[in-house]
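Thought: the user wants the 3D structure for the chain below. I'll pass the sequence to the structure tool as-is, report back what it returns, then summarize two notable features.
Action: structure_tool
Action Input:
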Amino acid sequence: MTLDGPATRLTVMVGESDTWHHKPVFTEIVHRAHAFGLAGATVVRGIEGFGPSRHIHTTRILSLSEDLPVIVVVVDSRERIEAFLPELAELELEGLVTLEPCEVVRYAGRPGEEDG
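Observation:
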């Protein structure tokens, strides 16, 4: 797959403890993005944050949270990301989902390695 030039970044912010059928919801999003054939996805664990509940989740020792923020970032063409959105809707996520235009400068794997 090649990807360069204008693209769209899908960002999904959820809680680390959010689940879908007994699996972490962030894992489900990544697996669905992979099965859908999107260009790539990355999960980033936050160290502090808050959402609609206004409750601050943090890694600081005195207020250690078991529900830290998790961000899933997926990049592909606008059309492919928009086609993927019903997959997210099915998960009935609690969190924040955003779309931002971006520019792909480089998208390359290791030589001889295919995703598979």
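Final Answer: Structure generated. Strands lie at 5-15, 19-20, 23-24, 40-45, 48-49, 57-58, 69-76, 96-104. The chain has one domain: 5-104.
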